[in-house]
Amino acid sequence: MRKAFTLIEMVVSLGILALILSFAGVIFRVSIESQRLAMANAEIMQKYRTITEQLDADLGGLCQDGEIFIIWSAARKDPQSTSNDPAAFERFDRIMFFTSGDFQGYGPGQTVRGNVARVCYTLARGPSANPAEPNRPPAQKPERRMLARTQHILTPPSRAKPGTPLDTSTFDDAQWLRWNSELQEDRISLAEWKQIPVAEKVNMLSVIGDVMIEGDFNGRTVTSTTSEAARGVLIDRSQAVSLEKYVHALLCEGVGQFMVQGWNDQRKRWMPEVNPNGDNSLDDSDFPLAGSNVDPNDTPGVWYPRGRLTMGGGISYPQAQIDEEHFHEIPGLGRALKFTFTLYDSRGLIKNGRTFTHMVYLDI
Fold it and tell me: Domain limits of the chain?
């Protein structure tokens, strides 16, 4: 008599097989997801190394006798929110400084070289259908934001290399934007840069820092006259031709926020900071305030050594004291700078990105 499987045994066997296949499918999916997350983390870490290595290289040659321009800006992640928790804000800071090294222009046909360059780090603006309403970083999705690094090599005209010195006094919006976003050379020396008249300098800094500047300089009020359409760094990655023009300025994609802080010896903490004592009230913030909000029209900043520092929380730094000797005492500069940035992977697998901090010591 031949033996065979009973119907019950067949059903049980198929059930066990289905269970095994189900577990195998789960294990396979988990493995694939783990691999994808590992690749996303590797991509983010590569971005982190790109940014930090460039910061170290640039700030390693920092010219403390040059000018440093920092704009600090905080905005609520949700404009409808009234929370004063620091986590409810994003930072859109900008920093410009002069550094020494061996610099050369990027891209085909670029022959410019020099030993001093003006470098700026900022989140770039994107294209807009209306030039009067440019697509600024706060309006972009965090994972779509771009960190720009502009490099302008100082090459003053000479007998060996004649040319027209830098003159921005007649620039229109398009010329301002091209100078800040595309060009890689300033036909001027560092000493000449520092002697540019204040009225012209505030226009240059307003374009570089993407902010309106108004201040009392040597007893007279000076206000920048550049329009919003002229300010900031424009990178249009939707257009191949445009991206080729600005590729030298595109340091990293997927940078959700960019924060710059300086160590303050007097306060023994990093500044500026939203809601520094953590009581969910902005009345003691380092930022100038309008009611319960950070005032976007009164952005705090420092311009060293030609201007003065203004911050919230009753902090001021008189113009007379701003010099190279007092460099490490200036709030916002101090003995070290701390950079904080949130990075996203290109596939959006890490939904909220990863936030990193990186410190650069300025007195070594």
Answer: 46-361
